[in-house]
């Protein structure tokens, strides 16, 4: 069931390339803005780079979140799913996975290039990759939640950011703490463990909340 | 066990119940708050480390505790609204949210005013402060989410769902000072076996806490009454109560 | 009584600004909140009475003009 939905999502994404290419372009553009904004001082950039990459990733995932359920809601796909009383959970899981594959994973793959451009040193670079790898699935899960909550809202848009960004804060704090510890040559397995714990907890509980949010929104 | 609660699920009964309760709650809240705060401001001793700034405690600690217990109350109401589809529970979620938001804002602002002289900074991104700020955003999110739907019923349900999800944050706030040893000091009155606060300071603190609690309940009563009237305004009983023709 | 004089009380051992800032903000917000809650109820009452009166007028008009 999940695989069927996942295949459907991927086919849709392959047809609507703007849906996942735009956030990626946005990611790169935000990153180029930072050196222009704070000044191209290499030492300063090197220290700030992991944080900049994280914030840019967060914003571009948020950008992709808005369209997550819009089309399916307008087409009546979600109504059909809820009415047929099956597959809502599988649909949610497939949506989350497809969202991560289309926005999270490309960000993780792009970040080495970006880190090179910003001159990040090796220890911080590894920590950044690890936190992104563990953190982007969490970003996807939370943005699915936000999109599901605001699906049938008349004034969505900025509201989604208001709901979801506060939930991103703990993630950002632990990711930046891990990167900072790595930069100073300390062990950061503790922060990574907390990131894993948050991811597992969210993976277990959030799909339930998303499924009930979808049901409420179409009832 | 909860049989006595059932009549209160009827909006009309709850409206009258809140109406009876409100004057007593408000009066006792104001009296007790006055006693607690004057005791704290004038008669309680100063701390040997924090000097007179410790007097901020008599509003900071109650408002912080209240912000969490108000959230818990709202989440319980939201859960009842989602599971058993009780209308008044649904309305009380939205009645409670702005009150909780104000208490959270008060705890943050008084904390800032206490932090400046003691820590030397208005704000520090430590675990307790950050999670409390997230609590404020959750309250605001519940209010904003409700406002974003033109269908009030769907909006109320979705806002309730967010309130239930956000309850994860409450234990995080409570234990944040133990899990992360950062700037904020540990809990002082939630340890009943060995309270770390001297009785001369504990009593005014507990009295202020009671006063804040009663004030919260009074305001919830008031807002719930307004909410009930607004949702039921086309029912005959509202017309009869408000002196219709 | 912890303070010798009223000005001593206001100064709060040099921390007067922060303490009175905290108390001022707290009571400012609480009074604002309570005022808002009372205003909501009052506004509803007013609105409701206007609606009733309007319905009454419409009814009277219909009865007199179109028997």
Automatic annotation (TrEMBL), chain B:
The keyword Transmembrane helix applies. It is found in: Cell inner membrane; Membrane. InterPro entries: Cyt_c_assembly, Cyt_c_biogenesis_CcmC, Cyt_c_biogenesis_CcsA/CcmC. The chain crosses the membrane at residues 21-44, 64-84, 91-109, 129-149, 161-181, 201-222. It is a multi-pass membrane protein. Pfam families: Cytochrom_C_asm. Residues 6-184 form the Cytochrome c assembly protein domain. Keywords: Cell inner membrane, Cell membrane, Cytochrome c-type biogenesis, Membrane, Transmembrane, Transmembrane helix, Transport. It comes from the Bacteria. The keyword Transferase does not apply. Required for the export of heme to the periplasm for the biogenesis of c-type cytochromes. NCBIfam families: ccmC. Belongs to the CcmC/CycZ/HelC family. This is Heme exporter protein C.
UniProtKB/TrEMBL annotation, chain C:
The keyword Transmembrane helix applies. Belongs to the CcmD/CycX/HelD family. It is a single-pass membrane protein. Keywords: Cell inner membrane, Cell membrane, Cytochrome c-type biogenesis, Membrane, Transmembrane, Transmembrane helix, Transport. Pfam families: CcmD. It comes from the Bacteria. The chain crosses the membrane at residues 17-39. The keyword Transferase does not apply. This is Heme exporter protein D. Required for the export of heme to the periplasm for the biogenesis of c-type cytochromes. It is found in: Cell inner membrane. The lineage of its organism: Bacteria, Pseudomonadati, Pseudomonadota, Gammaproteobacteria, Alkalimonas. NCBIfam families: cytochro_ccmD.
């Amino acid at each position: 069931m999940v695989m069927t939905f996942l295949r459907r999502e991927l086919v849709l994404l392959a047809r609507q390339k703007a849906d996942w290419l735009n956030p990626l372009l946005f990611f790169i553009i935000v990153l180029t803005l930072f050196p222009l904004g704070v000044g191209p001082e290499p030492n300063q950039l090197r220290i700030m780079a992991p944080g900049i990459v994280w914030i840019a990733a967060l914003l571009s995932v948020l950008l992709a979140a808005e369209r997550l359920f819009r089309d399916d809601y307008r087409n009546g796909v979600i109504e059909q799913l809820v009415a047929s009383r099956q597959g809502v959970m599988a649909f949610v899981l497939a949506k989350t996975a497809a969202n991560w594959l289309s926005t999270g994973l490309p960000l993780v793959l792009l970040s080495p290039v970006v880190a090179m451009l910003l001159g990040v040193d090796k220890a911080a670079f590894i920590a950044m990759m690890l936190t992104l790898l563990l953190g982007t699935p969490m970003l996807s899960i939370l943005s699915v939640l936000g999109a599901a909550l605001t699906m049938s809202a008349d004034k969505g848009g900025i509201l989604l950011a208001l709901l979801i960004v506060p939930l991103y804060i703990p993630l950002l704090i632990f990711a930046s703490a891990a990167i900072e510890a790595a930069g100073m040559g300390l062990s950061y397995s503790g922060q990574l463990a907390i990131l894993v714990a948050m991811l597992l907890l969210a993976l277990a509980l959030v799909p339930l909340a998303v499924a009930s949010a979808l049901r409420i929104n179409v009832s | 066990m909860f049989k006595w609660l059932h009549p209160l699920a009827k909006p009309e009964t709850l409206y009258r119940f809140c109406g009876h309760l409100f004057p007593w709650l408000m009066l006792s809240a104001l009296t007790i708050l006055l006693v607690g705060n004057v005791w704290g401001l004038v008669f309680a001793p100063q701390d040997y480390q924090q000097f007179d700034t410790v007097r901020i405690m008599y509003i900071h600690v109650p408002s912080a505790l209240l912000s969490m217990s108000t959230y818990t109350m709202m989440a319980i109401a939201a859960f009842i609204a989602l599971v058993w589809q009780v209308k008044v529970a649904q309305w009380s979620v939205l009645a409670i949210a702005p009150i909780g938001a104000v208490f959270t804002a008060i705890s943050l602002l008084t904390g800032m005013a206490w932090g400046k002289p003691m820590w030397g900074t208005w704000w520090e991104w430590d675990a307790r402060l950050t999670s409390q700020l997230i609590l404020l955003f959750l309250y605001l999110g519940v209010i904003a989410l409700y406002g974003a739907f033109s269908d009030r019923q769907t909006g109320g349900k979705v806002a309730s769902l967010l309130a239930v999800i956000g309850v994860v944050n409450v234990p995080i706030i409570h234990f944040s000072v133990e899990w992360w040893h950062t700037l904020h000091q540990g809990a002082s009155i939630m340890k009943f076996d060995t309270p770390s606060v001297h009785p001369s300071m504990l009593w005014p603190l507990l009295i202020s806490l009671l006063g804040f609690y009663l004030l919260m309940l009074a305001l919830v009563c008031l807002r719930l009454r307004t909410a009930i009237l607004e949702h039921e305004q086309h029912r005959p009983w509202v017309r009869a109560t408000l002196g219709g023709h | 009584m912890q303070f010798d004089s009223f000005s001593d009380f206001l100064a709060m051992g040099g921390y007067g600004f922060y303490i009175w800032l905290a108390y001022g903000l707290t009571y400012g917000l609480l009074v604002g909140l309570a005022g808002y809650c009372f205003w909501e109820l009052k506004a509803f009452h007013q609105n409701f009475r206007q609606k009733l009166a309007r319905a009454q007028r419409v009814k009277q008009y219909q009865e007199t003009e179109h028997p």
